[in-house]
Amino acid sequence: MREITLSQAVNEAIAEEMRRDPTVFLMGEDVAEAGTPFKVLSGLVEEFGTARVIDTPISEPGFMGMAVGAAMTGARPIVDLMFGDFIFLIMDQLCNQAAKTHYMSGGKLTVPLVLRTNLGATRRSAAQHSQSLQALVAHIPGLKVAMPSSAYEAKGLMKTAIRDNNPVVIFEDKLMYQDKAPVPEEEYLIPFGQAHVKREGRDITLIGTSSMVQVAEKAAKILAAEGISAEVIDPRTIVPLDEATLIESVKKTSRAIVIDEGHQSYGVTAEIASRLNEKAFYHLDAPVLRMGAMDVPVPFSPALEDLTVPTPEQVVANARRLCAGELIHAA
Amino acid sequence: MAEAKSNTENYLRMYRQMVRIRTFEDNANQLYLSAKMPGLTHMYSGEEAVAVGICEALTDEDRITSTHRGHGHCVAKGAEFKAMFCELLGKVEGYCRGKGGSMHIADQSHGNLGANAIVGGSMGIATGSALRAKLQGSDDVTVCFFGDGATAQGLMYEVMNMAALWKLPVIYACENNGYSEYTKTEEIAAGSITARAEAFGIEAHQVDGQDVLAVNALAQKLVARARQGEGPFFIELMTYRYHGHHVGDINREYYRSKAEEKDWKDNRDPIIRFRAYLVSEGIVTEDELDMMHAEIERDASEAVTYALDAAYPDASEVDQHVYAA
């Protein structure tokens, strides 16, 4: 199968959906000729023109709100938010308007829009360009949240998101834009709420999101060499969450570590761990462990920044101890 | 009064719609005061000529976005009393199945995209609706209603900039009732309101919001021009709210005098003024108008009774409509 980058996968997904559905359009800062700073959208304006690939001023709340209005009245906007950190700027339009409109109108109005943005530290971009804020939006009923872990997921989830009749937030890992993965030539969609068992195992379940799927997979390989069989699961969407697949796995392995690049406290790892504790408690041989980013603003200095994000080595160390029956106190 | 629609039917319809709004609000206020209505609400009484003058220039295909003080816009855009009172009382037959209430009432069938409880929160939605119209080659126009208080929100400047850059068919209708919640507008707004729009090259007008014909004449012109791609436009409508910020804002002399309220009610009331005009022009008689008032009061009273007796949503509704299928 051919291999393409995550960036190309996103680009293909958007181009295919824009060809299929004339109501789909893109808006955001530097999305047209510039194709975004990460060049993810290069070439789209040449095919679809500036009417459907719209460069906006640096007005995140403004264009987010406009996307909500366009979506409510018959268009399917894709909003490009250059950095995930800018979500704080658009919170009212995303969480008070987009997320609630369908419910507040008793189901009469819908807001089919996609907010594509990114997450991920270790780019030396410091505290305002490195955050992984998926937990903030996952907390708000009415929003769906997708977290692709490779080019394959990025394409399939994006196409599903564009066709969904709800506001969907997609977090792409900005460090993975140039990572290649096998992606079929023929069309496919990845349904929301279906986790992917990336690797089967018996002794421990490693649940990773987005960037942390690779971390979990690397850890699983190291563990395999030591005789520990780790199952790796990628939920792919955290809202909706495929709880059944996660619980089924944990019932089999009796141990789990949840890994996500958002801050650990009150985060995605806490939510998933809590559900496993509530619903698989009697199958567990150890408390479910959370591994999130450190609860500090992301530091600039490489010497410090690298300490803040979970690594395969840390996952291995924790998995080893859990499997040995040691008690680990989560931070 | 300024000349606008010249035929009797349209004049009487505008008058009727203003009286329907006033009557709706009087009943809503009573429901609140008698503790029959949950929550709180914001009365539109006094501002009727604004909503009616503008909405009478629109079709059902044209969209509006409304505010927390939104009952007037909802009625003016064509909503029915029954479903409105049901919504205010949290009943399942309400426009939003009781899930929105007074501050989120929306009426999709007449193009009302909804009231909004975030001050200035709908400015993006209105502008986005206009962007959609332009992208899809549709000739509908969107009117964004908001108060003077909302001019303090940054969102307004972001979306006016884009609306002007892209010549979007949106009309920003600023209902300047002189008060930003419990504070005089002059204390929160520096400079001129219309100059804010003019800074973006948006044609801005100020109009007497208590004169329904003046409002309607201006709205007809601007809506027609917006349909032709000449938008966006901005209107500052000078008006007055008779009640406090919300229904519970009773003792308000610390920010607004009773004498001032009396002056607006006695001398600038949009319904009294238009009534005098209609009668003096021989368009209608006092008796005919009295009959119209009585009929509207009867309608409202029946709708209130209906809504009070109507069913609440079933408990199974609580987690429905979080996500669309």
Percent helix of chain A, as a range, is 25-40%
What class, by secondary structure content of chain B?
alpha/beta
How much is the average pLDDT of chain A?
Answer: 97
Largest interface: A-B, 43 and 45 residues
Strand fraction of chain B:
5-15%
Structure keywords:
heterodimer, A: 331 residues, alpha/beta, Rossmann fold, 2 domains, seven-stranded mixed β-sheet, 36% helix, 19% strand, B: 325 residues, five-stranded parallel β-sheet, 7 strands
Tell me about this structure.
- The complex is a heterodimer of chains A (331) and B (325).
- Chain A has 331 residues and is an alpha/beta fold.
- Chain A has two domains: 180 residues, Thiamin diphosphate (ThDP)-binding fold, Pyr/PP domains (Rossmann fold), CATH 3.40.50.970; 128 residues, Rossmann fold.
- In chain A, 36% of the residues lie in helices and 19% in strands.
- Chain A contains eleven helices and 14 strands.
- A seven-stranded mixed beta sheet of chain A has the order 3-2-4-5-7-6-12, sandwiched between helices. Chain A has a five-stranded mixed beta sheet with strand order 9-11-10-13-14, with helices on both faces.
- Chain A is globular and about 60 Å long.
- Chain B has 325 residues and is an alpha/beta fold.
- Chain B has twelve helices and seven strands.
- In chain B, the strands form two sheets. A five-stranded parallel beta sheet of chain B has the order 1-2-3-7-6, sandwiched between helices. In chain B, strands 4-5 form a two-stranded antiparallel sheet.
- The longest helix of chain B has 26 residues.
- Chain B is globular and about 50 Å long.
- The chains are: A alpha/beta (331), B alpha/beta (325).
- Chains A and B meet through α3 and α4 of A and α5 and α6 of B.
